[in-house]
Amino acid sequence: LAKINGARQVLYFEEEMQEVFSRKYKIENELKLSLKENHFYVAYQPKIHLKGKPIELEALIRWQHPVLGMVSPAEFIPIAEESGLIIEIGKFVIDQVCRDLQQLHKTYPHLRIAINLSPKQFLDTELELSILAVIKKYRLDPKFIEFEITETAIMIDPNKAISILNSLKNNGITIAIDDFGTSFSSFNYLKKLPVDTIKIDRSFINGIGENEKDSSLVEGLIDLAHKMNLMITAEGVETKEQLEFLKEKKCDIVQGFYFSRPEKIENIILTLDQLNVHI
Ligand code: C2E
Ligand code: MG
Ligand code: MG
Ligand code: MG
User: Which residues does the UniProt record annotate as the domain EAL (predicted)?
Assistant: First the structure.
């Protein structure tokens, strides 16, 4: 019996692996087609400065597939990254963001937008030239563009990362470290990295008020950032309690469903107006 069960389990396992592989294969193929057929768009989520004026947005890609429906970036970005398609997808995002920003500046002339970069995009030798070309095409100032990169992307080749970051910063683009605290980052590098902001990962914000260790970690990260002259953002703020805690601990920027979900460009002016933050 054990033998039969064992054989069955192997069969289930193989079937499951088959499914994972074929889904991945399908996604990769559909990504290629969707790039040609424009099934992507960019959604925007406000980032709110607790001390007042400036408003920022984070650009988040959306894939509306005609048959598969909405596919989450959490699923398709890693596949795009592995296959190299992320470079082309990233170019679409950068162009769309700069085009949208040019429009949004008519109403919010100081609005800034942050763009997520995956490791391959960040390490792509053409990144800087291509972002600068697009910024120029839409007659923007690079200071209105921020890149969000993860610690993982930096740690692949820290010295190369430092030189890329320096070069981007010399051109006026600002940098945020995304999902901070989720990998074993080296604090030794943090002090050498030319970054402007660190974004505390959502998982820690989630624990505020529920898990004492999360609350302490968040408080500690806010102090650490300030002692290093960095700005600090909390992502994934969902409750009033979390917001009150972050205000009390002097977090600089907050972002999350409590304020707004990522919205289509058509709704973003209204959303910003409703948030009642005026530049
Ligand atoms: P991320 O950059 O850390 O983005 C934050 C994610 O948290 C977004 O998910 C956002 O919709 C979600 N979020 C925001 N506020 C809340 C909240 O209050 N509660 C909860 N539960 N979630 C919240 P999304 O849009 O699904 O993106 C997932 C990840 O995919 C991003 O994480 C980023 O790493 C990647 N990604 C998204 N757009 C792009 C892109 O254009 N290029 C690249 N390379 N990566 C992207
Ligand atoms: Mg991000
Ligand atoms: Mg994040
Ligand atoms: Mg994330």
Answer: 24-276
